[in-house]
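Project standup — Tuesday

K.O.: blocked on the structure for the chain from last sprint. Re-posting the sequence here as requested.
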Amino acid sequence: MTPRELANSVCETLIAKGHQALLVGGCVRDLLLGRPPADYDVTTDATPDQVLSIFPEGVDVGAQFGVVLVPRDGIKVEVATFRSDVGYSDGRHPDAVVYSKTVQEDVLRRDFTINGLLMRHDSSEVLDFVGGQADLRAGVVRAIGEPERRFTEDNCGCCALHDLRLD
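H.V.: unblocked you, prediction finished:
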């Protein structure tokens, strides 16, 4: 099984159980660029408890933030519940997570427009609520919302972008 096959299977299973499920983030960006994605993420309206009941092998890696890892055959797919974050007192983790029913609200909490792209697993139809496809074509990296807030939220020390000063 390939990572894409697992991601497709996760989407199909969630949809069969009455939930929404879409590929999201860097995997969609990479597919549009013609590159093999490093990993696959799925976003859904299923809560972490629902995801874990559908995928008993799932690992609660951040259910308090709406994230469950679904492993199979040495491959894993991250499944995140549609959500909006409320405040970032520690600069990295949301103070509270509110689950939402719309993927549009979920996309608005993501970092960059090129990572806010969604794709239907079965048709490869791209859903773009933040102008990510245009930015991808233009070679532009643009924050969703206020850039300074996005960089502050994601200040994990993992890359040079986080060290940029915006003042």
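K.O.: great, moving the ticket to review. Residues 98 and 106 are 10 Å apart (CA to CA). The two ends are 47 Å apart (CA to CA).
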